[in-house]
Write a structure and sequence with these properties.
Number of domains: 1
Structural class: alpha+beta
Strand order of the largest sheet: 1-2-3
CATH architecture: 2-Layer Sandwich
Radius of gyration: 30 Å
CATH topology: 30s Ribosomal Protein S19, Chain A
Length: 126
């Protein structure tokens, strides 16, 4: 059985934060310190439960509140690197691409519909 990969720096940050929270139990959920990481490949383990981890997606950091149901998954599963939704597909750049593809398709259809006429052989006179 493979041992789950956890970035060493991330693990030390989580352990430090849990020791601070053990000393001061009056910290509310709103004021919990956020742990920054770029390690999307780290596996979520039990000490991470109840912590807020900001995972870097390449452009910005996505805050993730870790629950017990997330244990065993990678941090990258909860922080998407690409935009989702209709707005990404309706951009000006994509409209130009779609129009170009439509032109190509119609040109191909026009080329295929052209019927070539077969010339009848003429009889040669002797």
């Amino acid at each position: 059985m493979k041992v789950p990969f956890v970035n060493y720096e991330l693990l030390t940050k989580v352990i430090k934060e849990s020791s601070i929270q053990a000393l001061d139990e009056n910290i509310k959920d709103e004021h919990k310190p956020v742990i920054q990481t770029k390690s999307r490949s780290s596996t979520i383990i039990n000490p991470f439960v109840g912590k807020v981890i900001a995972v870097y997606t390449g452009a910005r950091s996505k805050r993730i509140y870790v629950t017990s149901r997330m244990v065993g998954f990678k941090l990258g599963c909860f922080a998407f690197t690409k935009k989702l939704g209709k707005s990404i597909h309706n951009s000006e750049h994509n409209r130009k691409k779609i129009a170009k593809m439509k032109r190509k398709i119609t040109q191909k259809k026009v080329r295929k519909t052209v019927v070539k006429t077969v010339k009848k052989p003429t009889k040669k006179k002797k």
